[in-house]
């Protein structure tokens, strides 16, 4: 197995600019640690639509959805090509909207395999254009991946064009849902809206809060998660850095939330999942160096986690 890095410097799905610089900040962190990590592995740079932030926004319910859709398609294609070539994709993304592209690419590469998702994040990312209070699509990738509009919680009337683009977004990679709610598990979830909580409650989606994992132990929680995902052929892990404790690490992310994980807990969490040999792709996202109140601390911490992940992946 060869690792391939997919660099997706897109931040157009976020509400705050700057996460497009996150990958460069992580690379700088590696350089400053005298680590040749980014010279050891092949990579692909995904073309972006970041220039679209200068365009007038005409859609308040799914901002820049036409460009996010193209970006997700590009990420999907890159992930699919990486997997079908026999490589292991590690995706480094700006904002979290592109995770839909990653999931779609995994599914498109092996349509008959079921995907389990470990979503390490402070947020649920279960909104749709019908429910989102912000219209930022980095809060919608899981809803798109599971084909959930959540009309019963509707607060917006997106209009025909947006609805059509949303449907197209949901069908990237292969038509229809890429995952089901029973195959989604959250770690670190602690900030979500009522509409998202309704989905979590309705579908009994498994989630672990930070304090719960500390009280019960990471290994216990991971075993419970793996039991939930037992029927899945492969596991995709999405790591949003806002799952980290912003006070202990830094505020270098667009939506920081207090009382998160330590970097050591994330390393342990990833390592334990890697031992299952089911993990097929890992994504790192939402590092924003423009917001970092401790120099480049968030990127430095993220790189340390990334470097350890690869060491764990390479163990026989």
What does this structure look like?
The chain has 316 residues and is an alpha/beta fold. The chain has one domain (2-314): Arginase, Chain A, CATH 3.40.800. Helix content is 38%, strand content 14%. It is built from eleven helices and eight strands. It has helices at 22-32, 37-40, 65-84, 99-109, 141-146, 160-170, 194-202, 210-216, 218-228, 263-274, 297-314, and strands at 2-8, 42-45, 87-93, 115-120, 184-187, 206-208, 234-240, 279-285. An eight-stranded parallel beta sheet has the order 2-1-3-8-7-4-5-6, sandwiched between helices. Strand 5, helix 7 (194-202) and strand 6 (206-208) form a beta-alpha-beta unit. It starts with a strand and ends with a helix. The model has no long low-confidence stretch (mean pLDDT 97).
Summarize the structure.
This protein is α/β, with parallel strands linked by helices and 316 residues long.
Describe the secondary structure blueprint for this structure:
Blueprint: E1 2-8, H1 22-32, H2 37-40, E2 42-45, H3 65-84, E3 87-93, H4 99-109, E4 115-120, H5 141-146, H6 160-170, E5 184-187, H7 194-202, E6 206-208, H8 210-216, H9 218-228, E7 234-240, H10 263-274, E8 279-285, H11 297-314
Parallel strand pairs: 1-2, 1-3, 3-8, 4-5, 4-7, 5-6, 7-8
Helix pairs in contact: 1-11, 3-4, 3-6, 8-9, 9-10, 10-11
């Amino acid at each position: 197995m060869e690792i391939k890095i997919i660099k997706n410097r897109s931040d157009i799905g976020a509400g705050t600019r700057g996460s497009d610089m996150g990958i460069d900040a992580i690379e700088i962190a590696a350089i400053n640690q005298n680590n040749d990590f980014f010279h050891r592995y092949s990579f692909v740079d995904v073309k972006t639509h970041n220039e679209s932030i200068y365009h007038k926004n005409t859609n308040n319910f799914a901002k820049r959805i036409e460009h996010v859709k193209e970006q997700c398609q590009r990420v999907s294609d890159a992930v699919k090509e990486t997997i079908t070539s026999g490589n292991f994709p590690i995706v480094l993304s700006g904002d979290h909207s592109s995770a839909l592209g990653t999931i779609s690419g995994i599914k498109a590469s092996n349509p008959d395999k079921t995907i389990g998702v470990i979503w390490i994040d402070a947020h649920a990312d279960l909104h749709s254009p019908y429910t989102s209070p912000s219209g930022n699509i980095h809060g919608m990738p899981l809803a798109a991946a599971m084909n959930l509009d959540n009309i019963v919680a509707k607060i917006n009337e997106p209009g025909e064009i947006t609805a059509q683009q949303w449907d197209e977004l949901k069908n990237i990679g292969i038509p229809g849902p890429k995952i089901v709610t029973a195959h989604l598990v959250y770690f670190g979830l602690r900030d979500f809206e009522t509409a998202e909580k309704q989905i979590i409650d309705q579908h009994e989606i498994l989630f672990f809060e930070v304090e719960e994992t500390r009280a019960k132990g990471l290994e216990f929680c991971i075993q419970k998660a793996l039991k939930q995902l037992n029927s899945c052929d492969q596991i995709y892990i999405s790591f949003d850095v806002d799952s980290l404790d912003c006070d202990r690490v830094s505020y270098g992310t667009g939506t920081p939330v207090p009382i998160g994980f330590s970097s050591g807990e994330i390393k342990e969490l990833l390592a334990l999942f890697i031992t299952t040999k089911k993990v097929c792709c890992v994504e790192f996202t939402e590092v924003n160096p423009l917001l970092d109140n401790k120099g480049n601390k968030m990127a430095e911490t993220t790189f340390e986690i990334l470097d350890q992940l690869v060491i764990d992946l390479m163990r026989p």
